[in-house]
Design goal:
Blueprint lengths: L10 E6 L4 H9 L4 E7 L3 H11 L3 E3 L2 H7 L4 E4 L6 H10 L3 E5 L6 H13 L4 E4 L6 H11 L6 E9 L14 H4 L3 H17 L4 E9 L26 E8 L4 E7 L8 E8 L3 E4 L3 E6 L2 E5 L8 H15 L7 H20 L3 E2 L2
Parallel strand pairs: 1-2, 1-4, 2-3, 4-5, 5-6, 7-10
Antiparallel strand pairs: 7-11, 8-9, 8-15, 9-10, 11-12, 12-13, 13-14
Helix pairs in contact: 1-9, 4-5, 5-10, 6-8, 8-10
Bound molecules: nicotinamide-adenine-dinucleotide (NAD).
């Protein structure tokens, strides 16, 4: 049974996966009520290097041993996508609160197992959707909640790159380990933040297409992640889709790791009957005195990761529900699965 540390106690956090796990360690290190109690990576040298940066003495190469021995309250799951389900479920079953990196899993079936474990566990489960926590996103969310845009009926979003295939040949480009290419890797961020702004409407159908015009030819490699010589590339490098929702709204999504475009761009645009808005840059388009009026709201310079981790800890200590829930993450996975299925069949896929 997950306990809620008293306000006077420090939350003992463990991190599994020392890649983006370093971002989690940084976030935890900023919080006086958190102790990074253990770090685990099958790559012992990577775990040791991260532990050394934050003065962590408990280092593991086996997450089950860490869960059994390290007396943790909270666990960050920062492993390759295919390991999100086994690690998150083991941590929830061990009575820990879990912050799981995006995407929830490699597909909705695996993701569903996490959601089930989270329902049965007394621990909290939060998905690591850091873009929700950015200063600009939070300011726009408030505009929307205050009704400034009216009813949102259309949205567009995407994350596209010119040359940005991560870890060529590593787990990133192997479907078995990643679940897919840019759609599940970076498109998931654009999709999630846009659904959040739209109020997380229930998806009913998707129609999508995927392409692989760079990866199979060794082109389009980016800076993120270490390449693996001779490793496979069996995922898409571009995906696009239209998603329809129960409330009548629709959303157009694009995601690419490599594309002949101007350069990298992460964007989200929402359009309502009273106003529209974009993220990156944050603008609100509305009317004043019968004329179009553009607003450039000021917003705090808050990057998503630190605020996300602070929110996770606050939810544990204050016993509050996280704003990025397991059910929402599962809806995102269902949409992604549907897009991949639609791309294969050429047909629209019902999610109802
Ligand atoms: N939110 C974000 O901005 C963001 C950014 C990058 C990555 N991610 C997500 O974080 C996850 C990890 O990505 P990454 O870029 O850090 O990848 P990475 O390959 O750099 O790091 C993953 C680490 O997990 C370790 N690992 C693999 N199997 C393990 C196991 N069984 N037990 C313990 N450790 C194990 C690997 O040795 C590696 O060090 C992915 O799900 C990715 O989608 C999120």
């Amino acid at each position: 049974m997950a306990k809620r540390p008293k306000k006077s106690e420090r939350v003992r956090a463990g991190i599994v996966g020392a890649g983006v796990g370093s971002v989690h360690a940084h976030g935890y290190s900023k919080l006086p009520n958190v102790e990074i109690a253990a770090i685990c990576d099958i790559d012992a040298a990577r775990a040791e290097a991260l532990a050394a940066r934050y003065g962590v003495r408990s280092i593991y190469t086996d997450y089950e041993a860490m869960l059994a021995e390290a007396k943790l309250d909270a666990v960050s799951v920062c492993t390759p996508n295919a390991l999100h389900a086994p690690v998150a479920i083991a941590a929830l079953n061990a009575g820990c609160h879990v912050l799981c990196e995006k995407p929830l899993s490699v597909n909705a079936e695996e993701g569903g197992k996490i959601v089930e474990a989270a329902r049965k566990s007394a621990g909290k489960f939060m998905i690591g959707m850091n873009n929700r926590f950015r200063g600009d996103t939070q300011v726009l969310k408030k505009y929307i909640e205050d009704g400034e845009l009216g009813e949102i009926y259309y949205a567009r979003c995407g994350w596209i790159r010119r040359n940005g295939i991560p870890g060529f040949g590593s787990w990133f480009t192997r479907k078995e380990m990643s679940g897919g290419g840019p759609l599940i890797d970076i498109g998931v961020h654009a999709l999630d933040v846009t659904l959040y702004l739209m109020g997380n409407p229930k998806p009913t159908s998707v129609f999508g297409a995927t392409y692989a015009k760079f990866g199979p030819y060794g082109r389009g490699q980016g800076q993120w992640g270490a390449p693996v010589k001779g490793g496979a590339f069996d995922v898409e490098d571009l995906a696009c889709a239209q998603i329809r929702f129960q409330n009548g709204a629709s959303l157009v999504l694009e995601a690419s790791w490599a594309q002949h475009c101007a350069g990298e761009r992460l964007y989200s645009e929402v359009y309502g009957d009273k106003g529209g808005a974009t993220l990156e840059p944050l603008r609100v388009y509305t009317e004043a005195h019968g004329r179009p009026a553009d607003i450039t709201p000021a917003y705090p310079n808050i990057g998503g990761h630190e605020a996300e981790i602070a929110h996770f800890i606050e939810c544990i200590v204050e016993n509050k529900p996280p704003i990025a829930t397991a059910d929402q993450a599962l809806d995102v996975m269902k949409i992604l699965d549907g897009i991949y299925r639609s791309a294969e069949t050429g047909q629209s896929v019902s999610l109802a």
